[in-house]
Write a structure and sequence with these properties.
439 residues; mainly alpha; 24 helices; Growth Hormone, Chain: A; 0% strand
Length: 439
């Protein structure tokens, strides 16, 4: 514990630098995930008729599946972003990579808002869309690891779970921002106007958010663990090679642990609202509002999950979350299928309890699983691989299951199986709480 932290502990106040770190990781990840989620929401609502027009006219169901597939394409490039940003982050520092990934994500998102549609330039439209999605995926692959390590490596040992939860709640905050923005737009304009030009507004708003995030992140000091590591060696090693020579098992486990949370999370992000509107005939504005309100549960339970892991341990907290997700995965669909907005909200809100407890402790757990010199690479690559196996094609799989069996509860079976797999994965990890992060 630093002298500043020790002094602050005696007065009960958090040091200014710790507050800047928490603000920087939270604001940055919130903006990154706002960008990512705006696309995911748009993929379910408008992108199929705009960028896949010929398919949408002849086969709307197939067009929707393909639209959801474009979400997954970007996930395939997350490992590349994780490898590049992780390698450079372990050699050059966490802070530089955080600023770089934030700017890259913002630019690619804003350019999506300027893209001409299929009606204007034909097949070039979906090609350009996919290229920008690839840039988003590359950026997201490097973003999370840096933000997680900045938070956890600045934290007092006894509060790593809570500090690590701050970049985690950037996900529900980004979800709330994205969904609320779409709700406000769809409530204030006709469906025709939204389809014609209104859908571009949320993408273009990213420019303002990126400027704010850039200023905040530039003010954050480099991770003290990385600074200590840099002082202890004259030349940077080759951390990526070291990672796979000595820590392949940990990378695999981090990927497996994330599968179920990411799959269920992306159903909340991209599938539930689309299913409620197009599958059940519910009104779009109240569905988006209910989804936004349910996302507050994700925020609250994620923060609580991080703090709880400081008391119960990372593994036990994860286990509670995944057992809850496996149990709730099927029953929630029967509530959703009532097409009642109150039961729709209840189904999603209860699920966020499980999501929070299996996401809040993740940053602390992953940071504690790897030594300092390969930590950025390890957490970033494991997270990216877990995202591919979990959320990359979860909305597409859900849509395909629905088209095949015409029963929404079959999607719950898919999530329950994923939860059991991730539960087994986290149960194979030895408790990490309190390990020395400087080695």
């Amino acid at each position: 514990m630093t002298s500043a932290t020790a002094a602050a502990s005696s007065t009960g106040r958090m040091p200014a630098e710790e507050r800047r770190v928490l603000a920087g990781t939270l604001v940055g990840t919130s903006i990154e995930w706002y960008d990512f989620f705006i696309y995911a929401q748009a993929a379910g609502l408008v992108l199929a008729p705009l960028f896949l027009a010929p398919i949408a006219e002849s086969s709307p169901g197939l067009a929707q599946v393909l639209s959801f597939a474009t979400i997954g394409i970007s996930f395939l490039f997350r490992p590349l972003g994780a490898i590049v940003a992780g390698h450079l982050g372990d050699k050059l520092g966490r802070k530089k990579m955080l600023v770089f990934t934030l700017v890259m994500m913002g630019l690619s998102t804003s350019l999506i808002g300027l893209l001409p549609t299929y009606a204007a330039i034909g097949v070039a439209a979906p090609i350009l869309l996919i290229l920008l999605r690839i840039l988003q995926g590359f950026s997201a692959g490097g973003e999370w690891g840096g933000a997680a390590l900045m938070a956890v490596e600045h934290a007092p040992t006894a509060r790593r779970g809570l500090f690590g939860a701050f970049p985690q709640i950037g996900v529900p905050v980004g979800m709330i921002l994205a969904t609320f923005t779409l709700w406000a737009l769809t409530s204030s304009m006709s469906p025709e106007a939204f389809l014609e030009w209104g859908w571009r507004i949320p993408f273009l708003l990213s420019i303002v958010l990126i400027a704010v995030g850039y200023v905040i992140r530039r003010a954050v000091d480099e991770s003290p663990v990385f600074e200590d590591l840099r002082r202890r060696r004259k030349e940077a090693s080759a951390p990526l090679g070291q990672l796979f020579r000595a820590h392949t098992k940990q990378v695999v486990l981090t990927a497996v642990i994330f599968i179920a949370n990411n799959a269920a999370g992306y159903l909340l992000i991209a599938f539930f609202a689309t299913y409620a509107v197009t599958g059940l005939g519910m009104e779009r504005p109240p569905v988006l509002l209910a989804t936004t309100l349910a996302s507050f549960g994700w925020l609250i339970f994620t923060l609580w999950g991080g703090a709880l892991s400081d008391r119960l341990g990372r593994i036990r907290t994860f286990q509670i979350g995944y057992v809850a997700l496996a149990v709730w995965a099927i029953p929630m669909w029967f509530l959703i299928d009532t097409a009642n907005i109150v039961w729709y909200f209840v189904a999603l809100f209860v699920m966020t309890f499980a999501l929070g407890l299996s996401y809040g402790p993740q940053a602390a757990l992953y940071a504690e699983m790897f030594p300092a010199n390969v930590r950025y690479s390890g957490v970033s690559i494991g997270y990216a691989l877990g995202a591919i196996l979990g959320g990359a094609f979860a909305p597409m799989i859900a849509e395909a299951l629905l088209n095949q069996f015409h029963a929404a509860w079959t999607i719950g079976v898919y999530i329950a199986v994923a939860s059991i797999i991730s539960l087994i994965g986290v149960s194979l990890v030895k408790e990490t709480k309190g390990v020395d992060l400087s080695v």
